[in-house]
Amino acid sequence: MSPFEIGMMSFGAMIVMVYIGIWVPFALMSSSFVGVWMIKGSPVLAGKLLALAASKTIASYFFGVVPLFVLMGYIVSVSGMGRDAFDVANHMFRRLKGGLGIGTVGANAIFAAITGISIASAAVFTRIAVPEMMRHGYSARFSVGVVAGSSVLGMLIPPSLLLILYGLLTEQSVGDLFIAGVLPGITLAVLFGGGIWLTAHLRPGALGSAIDVDTTPPLTTREVAQKGVPLGLLIGLVLGGLYAGFFTPIEAGAVGCLGAILIGLARRTLSLRDFWEVLNDTGLVTASICFLIISAQMYSRMLALSGVPAEFGAFVAGADIGYWGVILAYIGLVIVMGTILDSSSIMLILVPLMLPVLATMQVDLIWFGIITIISVEIGLLTPPFGISVFVIKSALDNPDITLGDIFRGAAPFALLMLLLLALVLVFPQLTTALI
Asked: pTM score, two decimals?
């Protein structure tokens, strides 16, 4: 049996294991180990090669960016800044028809700029925004749909864990990826807000029974300052220092953690017990990401030894479907896989397979990374998996709102994400203009 055939068998076995419910890192590791064993004929050599891949991955200095931004995101979440972001954004858009929904999008955009975790945004704003919108007459379906749709901003607006993972997989600058995500992230937030505003004027019944201008008393100037200034300071500290070149991404994460801790202590919203829970949660998430990245490196080594990527690249070149054919086929595959797999797993499986093909086509990997993130994030809103939808369902204290309601509410936002994807494909400057 040739190495290519072994590689294809390992790939197929990995896909089967994922479909039957085996945790993706274990599926990647086991199929990689057996594949290298069959190619080299020695389980000892296979173990050593894969152990070397694992140690080099975790020993990388750039890996330090993961736990730091995860820690910062959790501190921001428990210290009440999500509620502050919602209050400030709602105050800004309260005079618009559908303003509470637009405010939820704005709050998610602000929250995304200091967390980078879509799941955290979904959990926080399900508890904050959904009850508030329903109290003002918005339908349950629209309320959960807004939260589900706007939660994906956390993986596009930097800092973003998916951008960090993509950077580690492709050896691209995390800082450049962060900068490349700014304009697409802002554009998506504008599309979401504009879509809500247009719907409120053209089809008001789709939003609910009472979507007139919010009559809630506005925040005072002092309240806006108390809630908004800490958020602005933290965003300016992390992203401003990063874009100005004062910090590397890792240093920005460390500075952001310190800033979030100081803000939480100054506001007396971060207790010792909260901090211990945050450290525990950060450790769990970081360990999960470690397993994902280690397994991805093992998988990449096995594919390289088998020659599958080279053969796949030759096949694509010989198929004569052209540059755009390859890109569109990849996007379609990512979106389809998003119906059953989580974001990280899709990237771990497909990105290493595509890299040799992209190298021959001289594709800008920064632009391709943003394309990948947008395509992957559409999967967060699509059935039957849709991890953001399940997070929202678990955070809801309302059994009358079904998973189907959340998926249907999120569908218009998934369509707007497809529109953003088309814009980035047609106008690559959206990702490269600031670099």
From this structure: 0.78
